[in-house]
Amino acid sequence: xxxxxxxxxxxxxxxxxxxxxxxxxxxxxxxxxxxxxxxxxxxxxxxxxxxxxxxxxxxxxxxxxxxxxxxxxxxxxxxxxxxxxxxxxxxxxxxx
Length: 96
Hints:
- By secondary structure, this protein is mainly beta.
- Strand 3 (27-33) and strand 4 form a beta hairpin.
- It has one domain.
- Strands 1-2-3-4-7 form a five-stranded antiparallel beta sheet, with no helix packed on it. The protein has a three-stranded antiparallel beta sheet with strand order 6-5-8, with no helix packed on it.
- It has strands at 2-5, 14-18, 27-33, 39-44, 51-56, 63-68, 74-79, 89-94.
C-alpha cells in the first residue's frame, strides 16, 4: 500500500491510499472543526459508489462512522462523535 501525506504528519489534511486493486480509492480531506468540536470532512470518490467511513483510536479496532455516496464525485460529512476524543484515525472501505 502506498500512502502519500500532502502535509506533515502532525497536521495531516489529506491522505491518499492506493491499494493494489482495480477500484478508485477515496480521498478524505480534513475541512476543520465546527463550533462543537465535530470534525468536517470531504470525501472524493467515484460517483454513486458507496463508501463506509470507519474510525479507530488504536488502528486495530475499526467501526463504522457513516456511509457516504458522492453524487458528484465529492460529498461532505461531519463526525460529531469526534469532539469527545483526543484523536481518531480514519479510513474508507468500498461497499461491493
